[in-house]
User: What shape does this take?
Amino acid sequence: MREISVIGIGQTKVDEHWDKAIKDLAFEAVTAALQDAGRETAEALFVGNMLSPMVSGQNHLATLVADWLGIRGAEAVKIEAACGSGAAAFRAGLMAVASGEVDSALVVGLEKMTDKAGHDVTAALATAADADYEVEQGVSFVGLNALVMRRYMYEYGWKHADFAPFSINAHANAVHNPFARLREPITLEQFEKSSMIATPVNLLDASPIGDGAAAALIVPAGRARTDGKSVRVAGSGAATDSIAIHDRREPLFLSAAYQSARQAYAQAGVSVADIDVFELHDAFSIMSALSLEACGFAERGQGPRLGLDNEIQVTGRVPICTRGGLKARGHPVGATGMYQIVEVVQQLRGECGPTQVDGAKIGMAQNIGGSGATIITHILKRE
Amino acid sequence: MREISVIGIGQTKVDEHWDKAIKDLAFEAVTAALQDAGRETAEALFVGNMLSPMVSGQNHLATLVADWLGIRGAEAVKIEAACGSGAAAFRAGLMAVASGEVDSALVVGLEKMTDKAGHDVTAALATAADADYEVEQGVSFVGLNALVMRRYMYEYGWKHADFAPFSINAHANAVHNPFARLREPITLEQFEKSSMIATPVNLLDASPIGDGAAAALIVPAGRARTDGKSVRVAGSGAATDSIAIHDRREPLFLSAAYQSARQAYAQAGVSVADIDVFELHDAFSIMSALSLEACGFAERGQGPRLGLDNEIQVTGRVPICTRGGLKARGHPVGATGMYQIVEVVQQLRGECGPTQVDGAKIGMAQNIGGSGATIITHILKRE
Assistant: This one.
């Protein structure tokens, strides 16, 4: 397999972009990535997106975006794996370049959610769950995560406030990210007093949706930039689990995270101790704990300990959500996986200012579709 | 790039499968493909599908299908390129195996359309067009094809009956395909008298929708079967054009078909004269003419001549739609591209009975998303 480098990155602010169509968001992020790389075009376009058919009445999105970008003629395809669509598109792009079929690929994670009112989006998000076995029972996506969190607290004896550090850390970091949606710090008191959504998940356990696009330009490593801004893709892994949580052997263990991280570690030739920064999928605070455990950063049931011990901060042992994470940068679902890739590249380039992880050389991004059903893990290295 | 072989194929009948969920259709086709190959599983699953979010309320389809198939844990991802989703998934699978990331992949084209009433499906299909520039004007997908056909007839002086051979040939061939939806022959008189849908497109110019799934198992060529049933993937090409037809330089020329066919010919080291059988995307009779022209089988504006001269029949120079094509096998949109691949494999294996193309060694499949906006062409060779 050919080695691949990321040579350009771009992103829009995660926000309610009422004045922009979905293709405008793509244009902004992709143009920024091309400018960053000093290139004008690419041979192929891979779009990660979940909700465009339901929210924007638009299928065939990748070809539409290629047209709008002015790279007419280029191969273009959309990849969908629920909230894991962004990383799935990145992996599809990697495989296209690695196979030799194309020599450059643009990957953009892209989501426009605010064109529909709240209830519609909640229903649309529930299409990531099993329509027959979960959604038909009336359970929303938040509801599913609440069931997992409640069980986790019961099994391992944590109280709700023990999850606060995950959200507090994410908000503290987002203050310094101009592309983040929620750029204000929060306190433990605010965390504990925020509105309940689905017990025990309250508003500050949950990530906000939003509109956004994040893009990267990838090429074979041999054709990368020589100015120190190229970042190597060292490892990539993808795995799945049953969509319905009740159908899993261990509902509190993300087996697909374990499996995909293991693949990525092996491919990159690194171990968990080598990871300098980890952009994980904190759609809900419980998911931070489960992800840290499945990837080997904490023992089972002990994820919250890392937060309580200040290990997840930028200066800690396992810095996570250094640009705000899903919780505060925002979670434009199909775009999120590409925001994570872009943010890891920023860390490895040393471009993160006050939230820069000192001397970061190896970064990991993990994107989740559904409540742990599709998990894709990438490891990037400074070149 | 590693050479790839198709070692197993499977399909369901295209029909109104009221008694089956979308995952049941996938199960039937994939199980048949695995049985055909004498294998039990694969490392990855690529699902081509367009309408599942809108018709079945189900995103995250690939992971759901992997779960239902019992290949839990395997990488799974959905690919969407409107009606070109099937071939797009096949190409994604090819690149995954070619890159070395996986050593076996199942690809399934999958669509369930009859769960919604007719009007809803027409609206859902229109999401393949440009929501801002085409659909907002009230034009349906049939309407767009009617505008193209009308212009073509005007420019090149053909009358409606000149397109009849495309539909008559497709129906005649479908009689012998147990998986086809419309297994009855039609006459020129029936063709001319059938109900008008959108002038000049009448019912027998148009392909019927349906539910269906078609699957293939692919592996590196070195690991293929040795019983003569493996088929080599010799060429693969993908290209796009503007989604909105009015925005194209030449609305009557499928530039993405030209471009993707040229890529596939070059990769396979063949020319148009070497193609023994061609499964093209006859969603409407006009598309048969345009596809034949863009791929080099006919001069511009002369596609219908091939039909009138009996060149498109199984015994002709360019046999097309040998298993019924979209017109009579049926067009379960996101599945169609994989039906074409399966049918070309059947031809190259010599399994087509009365519609077998004598001595077929090289076959081509071309799948189209939108009105020519995404076109993916594959060339397969007998091993």
Remarks:
- Residues 15 and 210 of chain A are 5 Å apart (CA to CA).
- The mean pLDDT of chain A is 96.
- Chain A touches chain B through 64 residues (CB under 8 Å).
